[in-house]
Amino acid sequence: MHRRFDSTDRLPPPITASEGDKREDGGGPATGVVVKPRPKTKKPAMYKVLMLNDDYTPMEFVVHVLERFFQKSRDEATRIMMHVHRRGVGVCGVYTYEVAETKVTQVMDLARQNQHPLQCTIEKE
Question: Helix (H, G, I), strand (E, B), or coil: what is residue 113?
Fold first, then answer.
């Protein structure tokens, strides 16, 4: 159990700076600021979500996927869909790994639910 401080108790003598702690100009104790180096944070690697063309998934379904999961406007989604249709592959967006993986899973799940063979994958940027 701790004893309470009483006004009759004696306080220890004040702590004084030792000679080594005094400033060169003879003033009070030397003071300094401890500067901690900040760890350098790296930007996360980015990944492209790629959509692959197939001959069976309806174009309107692809446009819907681009609008729903990649927040594309109708015009932009149509442009990307046509690019995928003509070139065989197209970029839907660029995200961190976890976000890209989630989007691929969402697209693939919806495609399977609607019995479409639509394929999406990721590639490091």
Answer: helix
